[in-house]
Amino acid sequence: MTAPRDIPLRKIDHVRFFVGNARQSAFFYRNAYGFEVVAYAGLETKVRNEAGYVLRQGGITFVLQSPLRPNHPEASRLILHGDGVADIALSVDDVRLAYNLAVERGAVGVVGPKALEDEHGVYEYATIRAYGDTTHTFVNRDRYHGAFAPGYVAIDPERYSPATYHPAGLLAIDHIVGNVEEGRMNERVDIYRTVLGFEQLVSFDDKDISTEYSALMSKVVQGGAGRIKFPINEPARGRRRSQIDEYVDFYGGAGVQHIALATNDIVKTVRALRANDVSFLRVPRTYYDSLLDRVGPIKEDVAELADLGILVDRDDEGYMLQIFTKPVQDRPTLFFEIIERHGSKSFGKGNFKALFEAIEREQSLRGTL
Ligand code: FE2
User: Fold this and answer.
1) Matching fold, domains 9-164 and 170-366
2) Are the C-beta atoms of residues 117 and 101 closer than 8 Å to each other?
3) Which of 65, 134, 158, 257 is 20 to 30 A away from residue 215, measured at CA?
4) Is the dihedral of CA 152, 102, 92, 338 positive or negative?
5) What is the mean pLDDT for each group of 10 consecutive residues in the chain (369 residues)?
6) How far apart are CA 127 and CA 89, in angstroms?
7) Is CATH 3.10.180.10 correct for 170-366?
8) 312 C-alpha vs ligand 1 centroid, how far in Å?
9) Core vs surface per residue 128-143: b (16+ CB within 10 A) or e
């Protein structure tokens, strides 16, 4: 077998959410998470069957999309999955090459290579299946100079007036985690490796990630020279129901569990998000009693971290700070992580136990543990 040709992936271009009411979701992501609403597509821009809002903060782009009519081809996903991530778009040098190579290597094609053209240039894309109903779209916008993509126009200030939220200082997407059904993790990891040329970074088994009640397994794959990181989780057998089982049950299958957003001042970011009314998971105060013994010296003030509920972990290369939000919709599915790295490239293994116990307290309130 000859060495596989590389699919030239650059980075995560945007994340597209499919939601019941994109207009209201845009308000939430703007006012709670501090995104700027920059572009819009809908009836007024001659898009007849869906509305879309493009939100931006630092290098992060979210697209919120809602069907306008019951016969929209994706309308049924709202009943099945509720609001959630429909697509993780990856920017590539060559859409046709990326799509053809991916499909040749076994990816399921969803939309073949297309070039959309308007007065701002040419926007190229093609879509393959990722896991569950989640897809990856290959995007190239090198020859496109409009607001986002054909159909989208820069936001009309009449539709969204200047915001009054606290700026959150979020800079980039650090990683996006997928939950898959029991027994499906290795298959997904292999697909990322063989189809997209990702490499496997680390794996955690149920001995690393278990509490008295539940367990999960996780493997991390990365591509695009380390700029794209996708941990994949599957539930493992525990005494009670794993949070991954809960997710799969409420989401109706595999899907995106959380998106980690990077900041270079997590204390300031979390203060702003709390002031904007974002709800975070809390670990018991005892977590902080022996924190410095566990992680060694850190630049941040432990009392301040304890006050905000920010977690710390260290590996050979440095340390990292992280905190998790509660789910951002009624179904216990998608949530966010805020992360600040100081050399560490890890995912917070040392925090798993404290964190999962916090999640289990929430599960228990929901009657799903
Ligand atoms: Fe994470």
Assistant:
1) yes
2) no
3) 134
4) positive
5) 70 98 95 94 95 96 97 96 98 96 96 97 98 98 97 80 78 97 94 94 72 80 93 84 90 98 98 96 90 93 96 94 97 98 90 82 87
6) 9
7) yes
8) 13
9) bebbbbbbbbbbbbee
Q: Which CATH number fits domain 9-164: 1.10.8.60, 3.10.180.10, 3.60.20.10, 3.30.450.20?
A: 3.10.180.10
pLDDT at 124: 98
d(CA 7, CA 197): 7
- Exposed, middle or buried by CB within 10 Å (0-12, 13-18, 19+), for 362? middle
Report how far ligand 1's centroid is from the alpha carbon of 175 (Å).
7
Which residue type does 243 have?
A: Q
Given phi > 0 = left and psi -120 to 50 = alpha, else beta, which region is 166? beta
Q: 158 C-alpha vs ligand 1 centroid, how far in Å? A: 37
Q: Is 213 exposed, middle or buried (0-12, 13-18, 19+ CB in 10 A)?
A: middle
Q: Which amino acid is at 19?
A: V
**Burial class for 336, CB neighbours closer than 10 Å (0-12, 13-18, 19+):** buried
Query: Is 47 strand, coil or helix?
Result: coil
Sorted by where each begins, the domain ranges of the chain are 9-164, 170-366
Which of 120, 140, 114 minimizes the C-alpha distance to 7? 140
Q: Ligand 1 centre and the CA of 102: distance in Å? A: 26
For residues 340 and 262, is the Cβ–Cβ distance under 8 A? yes
243 neighbors 360 (Cβ within 8 angstroms):
yes
Distance 128 CA to ligand 1 centre (A): 24
CA nearest to 321, candidates 270, 249, 245, 248: 270
pTM: 0.94
- Strand-pairing partners, residue 114, are 125
CA-CA-CA-CA torsion sign (127, 130, 135, 141): negative
For residue 200, the CA-to-ligand 1 centroid distance in Å is 16
**Ligand 1 center to 67 CA (angstroms):** 30
